[in-house]
Specification:
This protein folds into 3 domains: 61 residues, no CATH class; 248 residues, Rossmann fold, CATH 3.40.50; 124 residues, no CATH class. Helices cover 42% and strands 19% of the residues. Helix 12 packs antiparallel against helix 13. The longest helix is centred in the C-terminal third of the chain and has 37 residues.
Amino acid sequence: MKIIFGVLMDTEIEAIILSVLGWNQEHEVYVFANAVFSNKEILKVNEIGIINCEKKRFYLPAYGLANFTNEEFDTEKLYSFKPGNIGFSEWSDLFYQSFGVNGAIGILFLILSVFRDVIFNQVRFFPFLFLFGDFGTGKTSYVERLLSLFGSDIIGTPLNNATSIALSRLASTRINSLFYFKEYTNETDEKAQDFILTAYDGAGRTTGVKSNDNKTKSFPVRSGLIFDGNHLPTQKTAILSRMILLNFEESKFSDTQKGAYDKLKTAADNGLGNVLIEILSQRELFQNEFKESFAKNVSDLKTSYKETFPERTINHVALLMTPATILWDKLKFPFDFISVRRSIIENAENQNNLLKQSGAVSIFWESFSNSIKKGLVIEFNGFNSKIAHFNIKKLNNIPIDIIQIKIASLYPIYVRYCRENNATFLDHNSLRMILTSKSNKEFLPGSQKGRGLAIVDTDFGSCYQFSYKKVDNSIYLTDIEINL
């Protein structure tokens, strides 16, 4: 037996285990489950999971002989390199044709994610993409075509079916890649929301290790994250401010979009690894020029938009433009630089307005809900129109639930609530304008001639109408629960 072990030891091959997928800074290679990208060359595993890379040998566990039937590596094997038949130019053109401005932003975000470590080491933050829209508007198809560059793991993880611990651990398993967390809703767990907040700064969950010296283990987030949902994350304004929001509104697509997407899907089925390799090949250039390029983009934006955007929004816009600034002559982008910059700024303006409005509208309905609990507001009973603040309107010919309110009489109550809770309150006209703006989908503008956006109810008087959702004995406005 000793002789056998001796022979085996003499013939064994020493190799460095690469257990984390994505970028490996120590060895300067990008790790797939079945290959590594090193010095602008793809090197694949042999029959026992080993790669010869110059003077080093690497061992990739997912394709190791000992793990051939090990189901624990099934998910990891999805992250396998598939070269495919197209490069960056054709892929980006098809993606842009399929998704328009959202596609342009997705291309830039993908490049940022591939070089996330370079970015984070300089700026110490990394924003997320949030895809907002109803079912059938193309959100899932959009993400799948981005994830296809990294292999076949394109399913995504439902936020409401995973604990914050699981989310944190999952997001720490790859470096400079993409993760997809789907179906953000109003019921998304508080701890999952906290995970999103901390992931922006690269922090994941920290857990204790069973030992005598109080050691801990951290699960840092080191890849780009994409979220989607048909509910905006407005419960915590801080979450939305960390997102780059993309609206998906169309459920009908042009023949050009359909044709481009069909070609894109066929290409993805064959693999899009060569697209990723083209991007990875520009790492040295990106690393050398990122700091200066990002700083210049920030400076240019502050010159024109300092009074328009908060600093975080300026940073996000500048960050999105940086890949195009650095790589414009190296990668063939499918869009015009000036027009895509304008589109990114317009998208940021819309999101900034939404941040202001969603925060203010939520605070108003919170004050309304709180004041009902305290008995400070009065419901219309058919005879008290002069002192009543609101009316639940029942209309047989309209299949929606309506609440009518008198903003002027509610305004002092709203101001008092804000002062008691250290919240910023708006002046009366600003509050009315935000509550009745087109972006507030719950507002129902009046159609009576000469009354503007208000209506005159025969019994209740002059008021503003809003639709609400009813669940059991509660109604919901802007996701705020109101118990009548």
